[in-house]
Amino acid sequence: MEFHTFYDYFLYTKSWAYVMMFVVLPLYVVYWNFVLFPRKKGRNGESKGH
Questions:
Q1: Distance of CA 15 to CAs 4, 5, 12, 24, 44, Å?
Q2: How far is 49 from 38, CA to CA, in rounded Å?
């Protein structure tokens, strides 16, 4: 099969699952680390309250 553009190839392969995986997973890691459980560090780099 011949593809004239990358978009034709992309539509043929139906790789939305891979695209969403590489977009959503890093965003979820950032959300988990900085929004849900932010680290409050003291002057010496140790986390407070633990």
A1: 18, 16, 8, 14, 46
A2: 12
List beta partners, residue 41: 47
3-state secondary structure 21-41: HHHHHHHHHHHHHHHHCCCCE
What string of pLDDT tens digits covers the 50 residues of the chain?
A: 787 888 887 777 776 768 888 999 999 999 888 888 877 765 666 655 55
| Tokens linked to 2 | 């011949």
- pTM, to two decimals: 0.43
